[in-house]
Design brief:
There is one protein chain. This protein is mainly beta and 118 residues long. The protein has a single domain, classed as Sandwich (Immunoglobulin-like), CATH 2.60.40. The protein is 3% helix and 39% strand. It is built from one helix and seven strands, in the order βββββαββ. The strands form two sheets. It has a four-stranded antiparallel β-sheet, with no helix packed on it. A hairpin with a 6-residue loop joins strand 6 and strand 7. The chain is globular and about 45 Å long. The termini are far apart.
């Protein structure tokens, strides 16, 4: 198995159990610097965007809450309404720093949104 050298790659997998039409908190447990060390994100503005393709238009946009900023931890809270109109499947997301003078992707990867019986 190859070693991942990109500290920004953080897939949201089936194990994260994110289902269509439910409230969910997606915790990013470490925003890292280029060496992989936890980045202090105090005062940052972070935006989560998710699309059906890696370069497609966003189907979901949310602001992140700085949960434990000194340790690089933030949370993106989604509501049932945010995903109720989306199909189950694999999407692509980017969590970006967007405060003044900064525009950088700090986490990215596929995001698996699971279906559920109706």
């Amino acid at each position: 198995m190859p070693v991942r050298t990109d500290p920004t790659y953080q897939p949201i997998t089936e194990d994260d159990a994110w289902f269509v039409g439910e409230d969910q908190s997606i915790v990013f447990d470490r925003i890292s610097d280029v060496s992989g060390a936890a980045q202090n994100i105090t005062g940052w503005t972070l935006q989560f965007k998710m699309a059906a393709t890696p370069t497609g238009a966003a189907v979901l946009t949310k602001s992140a809450t700085l949960t434990t900023p000194s340790s690089g931890i933030c949370t993106v809270a989604t509501t049932a309404a945010d995903t109720s109109g989306l199909a189950a499947g694999t999407y692509f997301y980017a969590l970006s720093r967007t405060d003044s003078g900064n525009n950088a992707v700090v986490a990215h990867g596929p995001a698996v949104l699971l279906g559920r019986p109706t």
